[in-house]
Amino acid sequence: MSKDKRINYPIRVLMVSHSGGLTGPNRSSFALATNLDKNKFYISSAFSPVGEFKSWIKNAGIEYFPLGFGLKSDLEILWQLINILRRNEYHILHGRMGRVGPLICLAGRITGVPAVILTEHMNDPEHSWLKDRPVRFFLHNLGHMATNNCLDKVIAVSEEARESYIRRQGIDPAKVVCIHNSVDFSRRTLPDHQRKTTLKKQLGFSEDNLLIGLAGRLIREKGYGDVIIAAREIIGRNPQARFFVAGEGPERESLEALAARNNISGKIKFSGFMDDMDSIMPAFDMLIQPSWSECRESFGNTLIEAMANKAVVCASNVPAFLRITDNGKAGVIFQEKNPGDLAAKVNALINDPAARNDLAEKAYLYCRREFNASNAARRLEKVYQDALLDKGYKLC
Length: 396
Hints:
Blueprint: E1 6-7, E2 11-17, H1 24-35, E3 41-47, H2 53-59, E4 63-66, H3 74-87, E5 92-96, H4 101-111, E6 115-120, H5 134-147, E7 153-156, H6 159-169, E8 176-178, H7 193-202, E9 210-215, H8 224-237, E10 241-246, H9 252-261, E11 268-272, E12 286-289, H10 301-308, E13 312-316, H11 319-324, E14 332-334, H12 339-350, H13 353-370, H14 373-390, E15 394-395
Parallel strand pairs: 1-15, 2-3, 2-5, 3-4, 5-6, 6-7, 7-8, 9-10, 9-12, 10-11, 12-13, 13-14
């Protein structure tokens, strides 16, 4: 990297993620990357070759480099990243998800990239994936603490994630800004009746079914068992209601058994993991997110994706979901761990189509205003520019 403190547009950015799947963070990253001003920013990306995300990236004309996350050791991945940076002159190295933080800090410092930025999601602040590996857990935390000073900016996807990161990492609060995950409305068309009917049939339901969706990793703290319990009362009062569960996880078998005990197995479908939720989201009339406080949700990508499709959203009263639903003005809020409250509120919506349509419209407009990728991209552009200006670079 040249020692000249002048950078000519376009600013070259390398975005780094560990996952190659069509995860919520990757979809949000894609929305941002494709909405940045192409006259001022040139975006490349590097992430695992395992998964379908690389197809999205390549089809959008974004330069892609494979990184061996899940296939190689951290040292090998670090060496790959260093080689990418040495072959290409980048002005900003932007990592997504905390696991890549130490890698981008080390690679950026070694190769002299002017600014290093991390987006933090707080998906697993306790690092449960390392709970049975105490030595690696210690080294992981040590690596984060040691490299924090190398970060020029940290982007948190919610105020909850921002406060958590500052508290856990002891980083300067002035370095941490909030940019919510977003939906790209420029690439989205609202589902009409025919499209919704077709998608319902493809999923194994009829046109007359009111389809309620759930999506996410099937773990206890996500609260899906509460929905199964509530579903018996919902279907009992509204025989046209059906449930579709998109996701995989350790609780799947117990959830299927719970559905069988409640005699609703034939009216709830477990699809397993689905790599592209965008393809089925328009089929849902309603979406439920029942997470418990223990889950420590930092955001709710599935909620905003449903809102953007004019599906009514019902969410537990955890802080992140209250923010997304405008404290219940753009969605229905129910008490976490309370299947009775959930059932009562869903039944009320089903029995009042006018109120349901009105709420779906409010949710759509609120999402379009608050979680629009175009607006988020403008904020990200400012973060990029400020990071370089703070380092004494002149942008021309």
